[in-house]
Design a protein that fits this description.
globular; single chain; 2% strand; mainly alpha; 14 helices
């Protein structure tokens, strides 16, 4: 059945899912798990991991791990979104993937040493699959529940709730990890402020937060939306049919602006998603920051990003979505290039401030801009699978390239310059999409 656009209860429920699942990318993948992974795999003074008879640095291995998880998501998301269009069960698929992600996050509690590295690898990959898979269906709700002129604001509101909710939990985890004795947790690691148990409890907290608050979203979102009648065959085959159909539609001359936008978005996503997932390794290895200092850096980014998402929503209302996106990408490129020369903690905090300003803007604007570019269609999930596919393939390529550059040059600074160049390529294609959009309107 169709959903009444502008329904405040449905929109509020939709935004609550950002509050629920944003703890995964912040608490686990950005702030806590990379540092914990580096600590566990660096026990005994050895910071390399042997894979297929070859020893590689743990930061390089982690970048490949992130890349693998997003390659898996890239392969399954288009099919699943096509199935959802025919079955009309976006919420059901959101629920399934949120359970996968939440339980996988909780499983990281049991990752304690190199001997059970498989738990850390398997748990982090499955959590990433659950997070990204649920977003395919979550984002596909946006054009069905919000009028076009309200999309920027609602998209920004969702990100804002995600930033606030995840920041609150990160503060709780920060206090727990910094002062475990306050909570009756014994020091289990001589010479270390209880990194194992306190940090592992934060994984439990993140998974339970995700699963618990997601119930608010699922209580308000409609169970069936835009159900399409499948004439024959299995839902799996119809998923592939949807995929081929959207590809054919995107090849049409009238959809050139969407194609150019997706290419530009690909290069921008390659840059900012890689920064999000691997920035803490840069601060730790290149700047020499302590774990507590890195968590403070992440909090700076989060709180600044709240204002940034609304700032660029306002800018887009004045100059248009794509020009505003181009502005964020240019700032991102400058930040990456400046980071190459940063050697002090104060400088890294400054970089974090500017990252936060544009991080919220580029994510919220990209999502709403794509929704506005879509043609009249019932295939929202399939179209959004392309959006998610673009971001996930970009993330996989970006994190893999990051690890490869570390392997070839021995430093993350060169990788920072590489990401700056990717943003500039993104700006070029976004400019072409904007020109095509202007021609179509004239």
């Amino acid at each position: 059945m169709s959903v009444e656009k502008g329904n405040k209860k449905v929109i509020s429920a939709w935004c609550w899912y950002d509050w629920a699942n944003s703890v995964y990318p912040l608490v686990i993948t950005t702030a806590v798990f990379p540092l914990y992974f580096a600590w566990v795999t660096g026990l005994g003074g050895v910071d390399t991991i042997e894979i297929f008879g070859r020893a590689i640095k743990n930061s390089e291995f982690y970048s490949y791990l992130v890349s693998l998880s997003f390659l898996i998501v890239s392969m399954i998301s288009p099919v699943l979104s096509g199935i959802a269009d025919y079955a009309g069960r976006k919420k059901l698929f959101m629920q399934i993937f949120s359970w996968i992600g939440g339980l996988a996050s909780i499983s990281l509690f049991f990752f304690t040493s190199r001997e059970n590295l498989w738990i850390g690898v398997g748990g982090s990959v499955l959590a990433s699959v659950g997070f990204a898979g649920s977003l395919v269906f979550y984002n596909a709700f946006l054009p069905e529940i919000v009028e076009e002129d309200k999309m920027d604001g609602v998209s920004a509101r969702g990100f804002m709730m995600g930033y606030v909710g995840s920041s609150l939990l990160l503060i709780m985890c920060f206090v727990l990890i910094s002062a475990p004795a306050m909570f009756g947790i014994a020091d289990l690691a001589p010479g270390k402020p209880n990194v194992p148990l306190a940090t592992r409890i934060s994984f439990l907290m993140a998974g339970l937060w995700w699963l618990g608050f997601a119930r608010i979203a699922f209580a308000g979102l409609p169970s069936f939306t835009r159900t399409r009648q499948a004439t024959s065959g299995s839902l799996l085959s119809h998923g592939y049919t949807e995929l081929r159909g959207v590809i054919r539609q995107l090849r049409q001359p009238a959809q050139a602006k969407i194609r150019l936008f997706l290419v530009g978005f690909f290069f921008c996503a390659l840059g900012y998603m890689t920064v999000i997932y691997l920035a803490t390794f840069f601060g730790k290895d290149e700047i020499g920051m302590e774990d507590s200092e890195l968590m403070i850096t992440v909090l700076i980014i989060q709180f600044v990003a709240i204002g940034g998402s609304y700032l660029f929503a306002w800018i887009s209302s004045k100059i248009g979505n794509i020009p505003a996106l181009m502005g964020t990408a240019i700032v991102w490129s400058l930040v990456c290039c400046v980071t190459y020369f940063v050697t002090s903690k104060v400088g890294f905090y400054g970089v974090a401030f500017f990252v936060g300003t544009v991080m919220g803007g580029i994510q919220a604007l990209a999502r709403s801009t794509y929704a506005k570019l879509l043609p009249e269609t019932d295939d929202h999930a399939s179209y959004y699978s392309f959006y998610e596919l673009t971001e996930k393939v970009a993330t996989a390529m970006g994190t893999f390239s990051y690890g490869l550059i570390i392997n070839l040059t021995g430093t993350m600074r060169n990788a920072s310059l590489f990401l700056g160049g990717m943003f500039l390529i993104g700006v070029f294609f976004l400019f072409l999409a904007h020109r095509r959009q202007q021609v179509a309107r004239s």
